[in-house]
Each structure stands twice: as C-alpha cells, then as structure tokens.
Amino acid sequence: MSEELMDNNKDRVESIENSTSTHNQKRKDYLPWDDYFMATAILSSKRSKDPSTQVGACVVDNHNRIVAIGYNGFPRNCSDDEFPWSKDEDKNSIKNKYMYVVHAEANAILNSNCTALDGTRLYTTLFPCNECTKLIIQSGIREIYYLSDKYRDKPVYQAARRMLDAVGIAYKQFIPTQKQVTIDFDLIK
Question: What is the pLDDT of residues 47-60, one digit of tens each?
C-alpha cells in the first residue's frame, strides 16, 4: 500500500474516531444541579410584579425533584392593579405593600405539589425573613441556599437566623459555578 494511501486511511480513521468520540460523550457545559435550582428560583422571580424587589424560591427533594416554586406577589384574587406596590415610610400603613405581599418562600410552601416538604432544600434569591423562616421550620425544610443577603442587619433577618440556628437548619450563601444562564426562545426550534 502506498504511503499516500496509508496517510489517507489514517486520516479517515482519526476523523471517524474524533467524530465518534465527540458524539459518544456527554456535554461538558451542562448546568450543575444547584445552579439549575437557583436558576429556577431566579426564573420564578421574573413573575413578580413588585417594582422594587423580585424574589423567587424553589423547593427540591432529596431526589433532585422540584416540588414547589413561588415568587413574591399579592394573594390570589387580590388585584395587583388595586393594591399598593409602594413602600410607605410607615410599614404599618394600609398604603404599604408589606401589608399585602406574600413572600416567595411562603408561596413556594403553599404551592407545594402535595408532597411533604420534610428534608427538602430551599433555593431562594433573597435570605428569608422571620415570618418565612417560621413557615420553613414548620414545613420541614432542612437546608436553605440564598443568593442575596442585602437586609442581613435588619432585626427580622437577625431573628430568622436565630431561629434557624436554634433548630439546626443549615443555610448558606449560594455561589454559582456558572455566572450566567441564558434563555433564548429563538434557539429552540
């Protein structure tokens, strides 16, 4: 066999091996589970109509199944055109959104797909307040991963930490392995 023919055959075999090995291996740039769940919480937050703070939450069982999601908004059948979205200086004012908004964590717990939440993990875009922490404890959630903790010095968040520490629920600020997840509907055809 001529040297040129052998080189061509060798190139053809390498080409087949390369294409086979490329197609026979898993993709390396897939989302890790934790990034996937936090991205789901972020995507859920996009449903919030709150003009200042959009929060999303995702609850996951120990089989990595999403069992609940939620975002901050008004209770069912309370029109978001009739109730206030403003932050009145007086938090006890009837004109303050805080009198009406259901937090993302509470909505996720309430939206559970009939699955017991014992032993689950919560992924939330904002560290939970004291009221949501009470619900987290009562529902059986055992771990919390949060993105932002911008209100950590406020008493309601200090109280939340105190309760979580007292009952042994782990909480940790989430550090994504991927800095960006892009959803482009035009790419899916």
Answer: 999 999 999 999 99
